[in-house]
Write a structure and sequence with these properties.
210 residues, alpha+beta, 4-stranded antiparallel β-sheet, 3 helices, globular, binds calcium ion
Length: 210
């Protein structure tokens, strides 16, 4: 029994490792895990083209799971340089700033620091928070750059996401800046050095990343 479990686990890890990944300027720009139900996540469109959000999906794996993620789809258009904010849908314990800034309310935000979020574009991994199959106990990282009880904002220098869902995770190494619990100041917009105003040079920049 033990042997078969190990084989099964190995096969699953191989499958996950086989998921295609590509670096592009669509990534998580903010991750808010505060007190109570203060939770929100931002997706940034750093490409020069408008983004059809039906191309974007997020999977959430809780507590070290490697199978059966919660799967989320979106609709609408995210214009170049803008963010799409997913806010906690709970009736209480949610800061009014989250309510005001959210494009949608979703249980995608039902994470508490030891859960993995994977961002896909056209089914291809473009960013991730956490390490798949690893439950860190309470959170990844070191305060104040940690996945529980802080607001994490991607530094303006970050132009692509973390496409390796399997390697050891430290948000400090992924260009995240940590702010005190319940910091709401940055929700609803993102400052980036990567957005390129003209399409021709933008495509050149994106292509150069491959
Ligand atoms: Ca919390
Ligand atoms: Ca990683
Ligand atoms: Ca933001």
């Amino acid at each position: 029994m033990r042997t078969s479990k190990i084989v099964l686990t190995t096969l699953m890890l191989v499958c996950v490792a086989g998921v295609a990944a590509a670096q592009t300027a669509v990534f998580f720009s903010e991750y808010l895990e505060g007190s109570s139900n203060n939770k929100a996540v931002e997706i940034y469109n750093g490409t020069s083209a408008d983004l059809d959000m039906s191309r974007v999906t997020v999977d959430r794996y809780n507590n070290g799971a490697i199978i059966n993620p919660a799967h989320y789809t979106f609709t609408g258009t995210l214009v170049s340089g803008d963010v799409f904010v997913v806010g906690n849908p709970s009736a209480t314990g949610v800061d009014p700033v989250i309510t005001a800034q959210s494009d949608i309310f979703s249980d995608l935000t039902f994470y508490n620091g030891d859960d993995v979020l994977i961002l896909f574009l056209d089914g291809i991994v473009v960013d991730s928070i956490g390490q798949l199959g690893n439950d860190p106990g309470v959170f990844w990282g070191t305060a104040p750059i940690a996945t529980a009880e802080f607001t994490l904002v991607r530094d303006a220098s970050v132009c692509v996401g973390d496409v390796d869902v399997n390697n050891a995770y430290d948000p400090a190494l992924d260009g995240w800046i940590g702010y005190p619990q319940n910091t709401m100041t940055y929700l609803g917009s993102h400052t980036s050095n990567c957005i390129v105003a003209n399409e021709e040079s933008s495509w050149g920049a994106v292509k150069a990343l491959y």
